[in-house]
């Protein structure tokens, strides 16, 4: 999977980029058909300490998945975003399996009824 990482209005260091790449590569364990991904790192203008935002957008066959988290550090925000995407991926896979199963059952009953 190809991941692009963009830090908006600041320069991210290599350690952070490697951390994000490592976490994003774990998504391949849950779904092999991820086409591409984009990670956006932003600094929010708030008085609170939790001003770091991580947005992850994945392109998968049949649509896109998106997760956003705002925390005290980019590492924590990335972890939360990846966890959210894992939940979305498992729901997506379950939905596709159910559709596939229903389609196969329909074809089986149609073939039996035809004879």
Overall number of domains: 1
Estimate the strand proportion: 25-35%
| Helix share, percent | 40-55%
- Structural class, by secondary structure, is alpha+beta
Distance between the termini: 46 Å
Question: Which outline best applies?
Answer: elongated
Radius of gyration, in Å, reads: 19 Å
CATH topology: Double Stranded RNA Binding Domain
Give the SSE order as H and E letters: EHEEEH
Strand order of the largest sheet: 1-2-3-4
Characterise the protein shown here.
The chain has helices at 14-25, 74-114, and strands at residues 2-7, 36-43, 52-60, 63-71. It is elongated, with a radius of gyration of 19 Å. It has 2 helices and 4 strands. The model has no long low-confidence stretch (mean pLDDT 89). It has a single domain, classed as 2-Layer Sandwich (Double Stranded RNA Binding Domain). It has a 4-stranded mixed sheet.
């Amino acid at each position: 999977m190809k991941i692009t990482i963009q830090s908006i209005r600041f320069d991210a260091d290599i350690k952070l980029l490697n951390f994000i790449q490592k976490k994003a590569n774990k998504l391949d364990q849950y779904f092999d058909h991820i086409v591409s991904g984009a990670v956006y790192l932003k600094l929010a203008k708030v008085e609170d300490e939790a001003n770091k935002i991580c947005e992850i957008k994945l392109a998968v066959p049949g649509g896109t998945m998106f997760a956003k988290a705002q925390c005290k550090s980019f590492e924590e925000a990335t972890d939360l975003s990846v966890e959210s995407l894992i939940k979305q991926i498992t729901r997506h896979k379950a939905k596709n399996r159910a559709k596939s199963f229903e389609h196969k059952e329909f074809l089986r009953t149609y073939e039996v009824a035809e004879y």
